């Protein structure tokens, strides 16, 4: 009998760190270009030049243009370098832990204010891309469905406080919150009307409290 020698897996922390840095540089370059010139005008070659890597490196590290956009959306939603499920995000945890509907709405509004500062330009690029690219259209539908489910969960959490108006269904509450936490609403008030993020957050919390609570 002979002992079978299994090949040793090679793991280099330095190489992993370099790969992570390369991916981060690619995503940062893509984020800047998409925010400045939109989906149609941004090419993988431009992203590669700005990140100071080859086009092949972009493909190997992140993927094709739709995959780059997906990575940007997911990291913007999470606020981290890697995607984080919605229920595990910091501001969602704070909302769930809060007692009272007004406190939950205020914390959620603050979370949306921080989120849209990094998400809005990317989400609008995704909206435009979804009109012509099937992969981006599928991502748009996926994100829309995730938002729908999350808003219904939020409405149920608010309902459990006993403070929601009795004449409003959870679906109605979810739709009101969903319409006002959208990137388009942020752009209208913060970009077009020059509201500060702080004013936007206060507006969300105040309007939701006045509209939804008894």
Short account of what is shown:
The protein is mainly alpha-helical and 214 residues long. It is built from ten helices and no strands.
Task: Produce the secondary structure layout.
Layout: H1 13-41, H2 44-51, H3 55-61, H4 65-78, H5 90-97, H6 101-129, H7 134-159, H8 170-180, H9 183-192, H10 197-212
Helix pairs in contact: 1-2, 1-6, 4-6, 5-6, 6-7, 6-9, 6-10, 7-8
Describe the structure.
By secondary structure, this protein is mainly alpha-helical. The chain has two domains: 12-63, Homeodomain-like (Arc Repressor Mutant, subunit A, Orthogonal Bundle); 66-212, Tetracycline Repressor, domain 2 (Orthogonal Bundle). It is built from ten helices and no strands. It has helices spanning 13-41, 44-51, 55-61, 65-78, 90-97, 101-129, 134-159, 170-180, 183-192, 197-212. The longest helix has 29 residues, at 13-41. The protein is elongated and about 60 Å long. Keywords: DNA-binding, Transcription, Transcription regulation. Residues 20-80 form the HTH tetR-type domain. Pfam families: TetR_N.
């Amino acid at each position: 009998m002979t002992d079978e020698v299994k090949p040793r897996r090679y793991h280099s922390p330095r190489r992993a760190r370099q790969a992570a840095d390369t991916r981060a540089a690619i995503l940062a370059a893509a984020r800047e270009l998409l925010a400045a010139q939109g989906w149609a005008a941004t090419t993988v070659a431009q992203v590669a030049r700005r990140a100071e890597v080859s086009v092949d490196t972009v493909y190997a590290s992140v993927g094709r243009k739709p995959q780059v956009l997906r990575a940007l959306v997911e990291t913007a939603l999470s606020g981290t370098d890697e995607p984080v499920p919605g229920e595990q995000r910091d501001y969602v945890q704070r909302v769930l832990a809060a007692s009272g509907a007004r406190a939950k709405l205020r914390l959620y509004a603050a979370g949306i204010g921080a989120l849209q500062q990094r998400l809005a330009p990317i989400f609008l690029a995704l909206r435009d891309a979804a009109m012509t690219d099937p992969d981006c259209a599928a991502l748009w539908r996926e994100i829309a469905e995730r938002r729908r489910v999350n808003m219904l969960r939020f409405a149920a959490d608010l309902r459990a406080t006993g403070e929601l108006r009795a004449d409003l269904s959870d679906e109605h509450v979810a739709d009101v919150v969903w319409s006002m936490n959208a990137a388009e609403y942020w752009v209208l008030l913060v970009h077009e009307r020059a509201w500060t993020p702080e004013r936007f957050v206060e507006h969300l919390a105040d309007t939701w409290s006045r509209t939804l609570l008894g």
